[in-house]
Design goal:
The chain is α/β, with parallel strands linked by helices. Strand 2 (about 30-35), helix 2 and strand 3 (about 60) form a beta-alpha-beta unit. The longest helix is centred in the C-terminal third of the chain and has 16 residues, at about 315-330. It has a seven-stranded parallel β-sheet. Strands 9-10-8-11-14-13-12 form a seven-stranded mixed β-sheet. The protein has helices spanning about 15-25, 45, 65, 80-85, 105-115, 150-165, 195-200, 215-225, 260-270, 315-330, and strands spanning about 5-10, 30-35, 60, 70-75, 95, 120-125, 145, 170-180, 205, 230-235, 245-250, 275-280, 295-300, 305-315.
Length: about 350
């Protein structure tokens, strides 16, 4: 019997990707789709590529509309999920693709988001290595409330966590610069650039340690390291519609060989179906486009005694919607890769 699923915020980029993945997931049946200003409009008008759902009409995001579902995905703007989540039945599995429940430190939330902290849900990054042993995956089984990670956070965390868990990296010297596709800034982004401004150009935003993903990145890497990690993180908007390429440089705790560095990552991710650790080549966003795949490149700069770890993901799939489906599978006890396979084979 299929699980009945609702998508709140179905008119946005994340909503579109969730619907695309739901359409091919063998255990999901789409119920309500909701929106705010687009309520009353058909999905065919908003997402014409989703022909299987083209006749569905977006409804208001209300308690009545979202009731009676086994699973509810929240693809809502930051700061709005908490109110909606409060009226969803406790028996339903709720996965928030926004930031409302990701942070454990209430003060960090208030500092970066400027509102009252709503609480903390189980974090939806199965592959996160933990200093105390194991991975975040074990905490997702049976969860009823899941906070889906941020897209920039995913690229940086998966790139650096194994090195911190292995004790290779200095937690006080981490620099991450990300090339981010325009969809990463959101459909209603404050990063307002016209086509003429972004075509053939690039622009940094959230510069100077103010980007809202900063405390989430540090929270994850601190769990991986067993020590407080401090990150300098700068995203750069580039002229591609989707994808993230993260270039992370981190000071070594001691000098080691590139082979030892690669071995730490190969061991950490050996059984991960969606993560590919490259040796002798570099990841590209084109290689992961539309998939839940992660490519990680490993280099060691002997001159500067710094590791250079690169990571490519699709910000709308592994960066958000795919991570939500992956976490949902684990929470429900389904095969982790179900509905996320490429040509029938998990990437």
């Amino acid at each position: 019997m299929a699980f009945r699923v609702a998508v709140a915020g179905a008119s946005g980029y994340v909503g579109s990707e969730l619907l695309r993945l739901i359409a091919t997931h063998p255990e999901l049946e789409l119920g309500a789709v909701t929106a705010n200003s687009n309520a009353g409009v058909s999905l065919g008008e908003i997402h014409p590529h989703l022909r299987v759902f083209s006749d569905r009409v977006l409804e208001p995001t209300t308690q009545q509309v979202l009731s009676g579902h086994d699973i509810v995905f929240l693809g809502l703007p930051h700061g709005t999920s908490a109110e909606v989540a409060s009226f969803i039945n406790e028996s339903a599995l709720v996965l928030d693709c926004g930031a409302d429940f990701r942070l454990e430190d209430a003060q960090a939330w208030e500092n970066f988001y400027g509102t009252k902290h709503a609480g903390t849900w189980t974090y939806g990054m199965p592959e996160l290595t933990l200093a105390k042993g194991g991975k975040q995956r074990s905490l997702l089984a049976g969860a009823k409330r899941v906070a889906v990670p941020g897209c920039n956070v995913t690229a940086i965390t998966l790139a650096l966590a194994p090195g911190f868990t292995a004790g290779l990296f200095d937690p006080r010297d981490v620099v991450s610069v990300l090339s981010v596709g325009t969809s990463g800034a959101g459909r209603a982004s404050k990063v307002e650039l016209s086509h003429a401004e972004i075509h053939g150009s690039a622009k940094a935003y959230g510069v100077g340690g103010v980007h809202r993903h900063t405390p989430e990145i540090e929270q994850n890497l601190s769990k991986a390291a067993g020590d407080q990690v401090q990150v300098s993180f700068t995203p750069v908007l580039v002229p591609m519609s989707r994808g993230i390429l993260a270039v992370n440089t981190v000071k070594s705790n001691y000098r080691f060989t590139e082979e030892a560095l690669f071995e730490a990552y190969a061991d950490a991710y050996a059984d991960e179906p969606f993560i590919q650790v490259l040796q002798g080549s570099q990841p590209s966003t084109a290689s992961v486009l539309g998939s839940n795949s992660v490519q990680i490149g490993i280099e060691y700069d002997k001159h500067a005694a710094r590791a250079v770890i690169t990571c490519a993901i699709d910000n709308l799939v592994k960066g958000t919607a795919g991570a939500a489906i992956q976490s949902m599978n684990l929470a429900l006890g389904l095969p982790e890769t179900l509905g996320l396979e490429v040509n029938g084979v998990a990437p």
